[in-house]
Amino acid sequence: MFSKACEYGIRAAVYIALQSLDGRRVSVNEIAEEIDSPIAFTAKILQQLSRNNIIHSVKGPTGGFQIAREDMDAVKLNMIVKAIDGDAIYVGCGLGLKECNAQKPCPLHDKFVDIRTDLSKMLKSTSLYELATGLEVGLTYLKR
Amino acid sequence: MFSKACEYGIRAAVYIALQSLDGRRVSVNEIAEEIDSPIAFTAKILQQLSRNNIIHSVKGPTGGFQIAREDMDAVKLNMIVKAIDGDAIYVGCGLGLKECNAQKPCPLHDKFVDIRTDLSKMLKSTSLYELATGLEVGLTYLKR
DNA sequence: CAAATAAAGGACATTTTTGTCCGATTAATG
DNA sequence: CATTAATCGGACAAAAATGTCCTTTATTTG
Fold first, then answer.
1. How many alpha carbons fall within 13 Å on the CB side of residue B106?
2. Which of A81, B17, B107, B122 could be joined to A140 by an S-S link, Cβ 3.0–4.6 Å?
């Protein structure tokens, strides 16, 4: 469904949000440790998220990554997915056809539209804050 | 969503079914031409489908691929997807966690279960015959 | 201002997916 | 029975995704 990079990106963003709720700024090393991901690869992905203004980065000692409380509401999952995987999930044809639309649909077109609409709705309506608080109260987990 | 191999596999299977409805057996070359896919790669995928008894192959002159009318009803999309992509789509965690289940869910677990259940239902209930007849009456298209 | 710390970014390495080529096998036909 | 046409299957090639390493840049602190 998502690329590995995107999975790491979402997990990282949720962890950063969780720690930001405690006023903690976190380093790549800590993030990679806590979400069980390769450090250097995770660093790349965090750069992407930072460039897309999804998370905030601070260089130098005491630096690291954080997310402002307001941004946790504003940042929805679809923004993270788009920043990392692009919009292939939303746009492309399920069977890989270049020209596939309501006028000239592939055999799966209509059935795919339904599922993708649901997926899209879910991603657009799920905020980082929602995911982070689920973690905070121990309802959900990020590791393993 | 699906791998390229799986996209080609579905398109090929639908085309074979369509032609089998006319009593025609088709070659790899014709299939690749008609579904706009790389010939040799398509051949590999057809082998997989053949080994999984999803399509039937005949060697030698006048040989090719075909699907019996009854099998078009019996073969559902999920069987093709499983034969080519395995069950990652149905089983894995949306965020890539190894241990993710109702007891120890990732932050997206519940929302993913919903979408995947829909996808799974769709794939399990869609037969090759249904897709082939859509093509036959000109409601849907396979190329480009 | 020097040292230390952390992200940024470029180059490179590995693995997986996608795609190609060619000889072996099978079967039909003259 | 030789030729031919088709799939099968293994080895290889190219491209994309995943992952690593190392230098540069920014910033804090003593």
1. 25
2. B107
